[in-house]
User: Fold these one by one.
Assistant:
Number 1:
Amino acid sequence: MTLSRRIFAGAATAALFLPAPVRAQAAGRVKMTEVKRLTLKVIRPVGTYPDFLNRPRVVNIGGGAFVEVHTDQGITGIGPDIDPALLPAVNAVLRGQDPFDINLLAARLYNLPTGDNTVAMPVKFRGTASVEVAIWDLIGKIARQPLYKLWGGGRDRITPYASMLRLSTPEERAQQAVRHKAAGWKAFKVRAGYETMKDDIRLVETIRKAVGDDYVLMVDANKAILDTGVTEGTRWDFDRAAKTALAYQRMGVWLLEEPFPRADLDHLVELNRLLTMNLAGGEGNRGIAEFRALLDRGALDIVQPEIQIEGPNHLRQIATMAQSMNRMCIPHQGDSRLGTICTMHLVASWPQSVSPYFELFNDQPIGDYTYPFAIFENPPTLQADGTFALPQGHGLGVTIREDFVERP
């Protein structure tokens, strides 16, 4: 009995020297206690530029907000920003819950109670996908693994493509493409949508002549938003879309994104039948059923779900569905911060044949990807071989710098 008590006492003492997550698991299941929203200081304004719809977009180093999911064991998960009006309902769902019940909790977050009713609003407008990201970060920290490892691993480096934010001139885009190629970027995506088809085609002709035939070019027509009440921008009819797409195909464009409004499945299917070039879209689609319809009907070769709308659970299901149909899943950019980091982990956990690239805005000088990443203590950066190394810390693997955080 004495020996048994000594062994027990020794084990208890040794447990005090274990890392906090391991002690937490030894003490019982971790329970979530509160979700908080913290704002970030603007350290430096960068400037303003017109986006592809000629709407002003402000760029700062810092600013915005993020969420923290706290637990009874002192472990905290972080995720992208959320509408503060949603915090009471989010806390009512998560308080006292085990983060490892993630499937159940994510489903509940998709149907938050509002007043006396439960409404299934698009996640983009509720922001609860951000909370799901934070719960996954928490799970990774408890398990002491980076998320891409928890989701199956496979790659510790992934390849970005540089995505442009503005509708610019062919000459400026050609110069940028040359600079990106020299810096190691393996692929470059521009936005099309000039008033005339001639200018849309000249855009790619100018870039292709500047970078040569061995560089991966992509084009985003940005037409999917036209069925959401947006009046800016140039709409393509089927004839213009087909002629433009076939011209791009002859110039070796690898991907054409969103040539029609997202609900115009008939034209997407008809156009895709004419092409060997990849047709892509889906950044604004919502729910598994919409992506299933796009894939079932052959409307797209590449689906691009947005993590700020769907959340990690749905993105994983969409990628598996695409893989089962020999299609690709290359998610949309995310929020350029924690959502984008989470997307990187997802892409790294999928086969390269399913997700050969990930999107990263890098419309220099104002839209440089390093500006939003500046809130991190350990931001990922482009490597000499044109890849990004996955963060190896637990969970998302990144930490927000305390000098940016406004704490009460």
Number 2:
Amino acid sequence: MDILPHMSHEEKLKSLGIELPPVPQAAGLYKPMLVVGDLVYLSGHLPILEDGTMRVGQVGNDCTVEEGSDAARQVGLNMLATLRARLGSLDRIARVVKLLGLVNSESGFTKHPQVINGCSELLKDVLGNDCGVGTRSAFGVSGLPAGAMVEIEGIFQIKE
């Protein structure tokens, strides 16, 4: 059951005291977001902070699971900023369909889901239990762009 089921996504965001960061800009030859029918595809987003710096490091080596989870939450904020900027309002989101989370981690690290939970929990809090929780994969990689701790891409269904 949603904590605040009667509130819109925008109202939930505000009630949680969350301010979205600046919209991240594409850093290569790709579109940050693409709408196909009623689905929105988000390219991989990174844990870029409001001051333009990024959460970097290898989880399980020089960063903790908690630091990785915080970085994943930051990615979620950046994803929401992209969605709001390009859709006009988070209220157009019908549901999270799929998240794909990559964790910069050392060989043998096995807590990828706990790291990506930082993003998943944020989306559940803002979008609700039904709408904010979709399918998900989380796995480790030996490196990410500019040494980022995590990278997450997503597919969302939208309302017309």
Number 3:
Amino acid sequence: MVTILIVEDDRMVRLLTKAKLSPQYSIREAANGQEALDVLDHEHIDLLIVDIQMPVMNGYELVRTLRESGDMTPVIMLTAMNTFAHKKEGFAAGVDDYMTKPIDYEELTWRIEAILRRAQIANEKRIVIGDFSMEQGTFSARYRDRTISLTNKEFQLLYKLLSYPNVVFTKQQLMDEIWGYDSETEYDTIKTYISRLRSKCAACTEFELTSIRGLGYRAVIRQPEGVQNET
């Protein structure tokens, strides 16, 4: 089971968050950043939920300490401090997401699942959706017992979209990341590659590549729920 560390000095908020999340996750608690570091020294933690304003060591200091030591455990900063400056400092420190109180626990769960999914994909370099799989290490894709032949760019484009299901990427974002900022490739190239991928993956019922008029493209997962790494 995924283990989440809640770092929050307000005991009531900490207990309520634990109660909301414990049906799905194993929960550990800490009242400040120093206590959190002590927990991390002795236990494996998959994700941290961190407040900012805490005694002894605040949330910013905790995240900076983790990142400076090379610890890339995902962190969601959950705080009442909601100004742009606070969010900027949080992301500069190295948080993966930032939510403000009052807490919408359903949204928090969505964000946790999205971050864990991305972390697993990054670590395993493998995407599995039902009978479809992609291996980043070998640039290979398979559906059931059949290999899907993809070019390097086709693989990168599909891997990007499937890593962030339901997220809309603009043509410019995809061009910059996959073809490079200095590329002279035209936007129509994206359309062509999406068309090729749809054709090559036509038998895959688990996902669909959809166009969002005026915006870009996204991958919609049909089944099973979400994108998971095989463990």
